């Protein structure tokens, strides 16, 4: 599932459903949304119809009143109520920041200002979320900072782990290019001075959560002390309203070989997986490293496969017929599995293992007796995952060439097929 719901004029509209709490529950889908400025919507357009079809009954605009007045607010409609709750009291001009400003420390400090300046508005927004028994969306201008901060508070009070909250914040990276294009269009084609404008590096949310807990001890203590709310009652209401049990049954997987028209989807899947890794401190993939051309090339040189659950993309992998960069010259006795990736939080349990088995079956069908793959030597967790799937470590390549960076060390793993 791609969390970004497609609109023509909105670039960062997302469903917060599906995130796990670690207690056997997850956030309900279709109930809580975050977005960039809904002032871009216009009646009698496909985007407007798409928005109304979501069944949203409450819209929270986190922008300054002057922003809503100058840039427009969502059009009025009988199906929802609108509240303008400006949680940011000290405006700052991000596009004009100088290139030496590190977004992590800078933005996390601004988030702390908002957390302590906008207590009245934040409390009102949390109360609305807790009381909403139908769809609710909150938004700011780009759907990144003020929206990301409120999303973090709600998800944290629901019991969603920090790494997932950080991941959710960083998903704005998938919309950065479009957000920058919008800004340039509004500003006579200029480019922001600050190279981090529109970006959402994981360090911002990581540092903010650390700072908030460092000052208050916990999110619940922040709610009690800074917002003067009953944290236990708020948490109970939020969880009763927005959580559901994790399913005990899941749809089966289907597979198909990818075609060149699937390249944008494959880039999206990989960039999403890269952000999942970075939120957990795994520096293995970076967003933007693999382009559509990469996946088309791999389709011509080998095979690329997509996995689906109930018609929704849930994973993918590449299958190569040689891999000299990692394995050196070899006879045609193996298939090489690369870029095994699943959709975070929404793919059925065991999707990765099932895709491995499918890839192995494809290799075996060609008469090749081995499945081979490699993983970063600095990622022991992934190595253990492959070992649990029957792969054996057979060596190490200390200087594999590939990607956009310097040579890197990989562990080589092999499985004899039946």
Q: Describe it for me?
A:
This protein is an alpha/beta fold. It has 2 domains: 14-245, Protein-Tyrosine Phosphatase, Chain A; 253-416, Gcn5-related N-acetyltransferase (GNAT) (Aminopeptidase, 3-Layer(aba) Sandwich), CATH 3.40.630. 39% of the residues lie in helices and 20% in strands. The protein has 15 helices and 14 strands. The chain has helices at residues 46-52, 65-71, 103-117, 119-131, 145-158, 162-170, 176-186, 202-216, 219-225, 231-242, 263-279, 292-301, 324-327, 351-365, 380-388, and strands spanning 14-15, 25-27, 32-35, 56-61, 81-84, 135-139, 243-245, 253-257, 303-309, 312-320, 334-342, 370-376, 392-400, 408-416. Strands 8-9-10-11-12-14-13 form a 7-stranded mixed beta sheet, with helices on both faces. Strand 13 (392-400) and strand 14 (408-416) form a beta hairpin. Helix 3 packs across helix 8 (202-216), helix 5 (145-158) packs antiparallel against helix 6 (162-170) and helix 8 packs across helix 9 (219-225). The model has no long low-confidence stretch (mean pLDDT 96).
Level of helix content? 25-40%
Order of strands across the main sheet? 8-9-10-11-12-14-13
Radius of gyration over all CA atoms, rounded: 23 Å
Largest sheet: 7 strands, mixed
Number of helices: 15
What's the β-strand tally? Answer: 14
CATH homologous superfamily placement of the largest domain = Protein tyrosine phosphatase superfamily
Q: State the CATH architecture of the largest domain.
A: Alpha-Beta Complex
Give the oligomer, counting copies of the same chain as homo and different chains as hetero.
single chain
**What portion of the residues fall into strands of 2 or more residues?**
15-25%
- Roughly what is the average pLDDT, rounded to an integer? 96
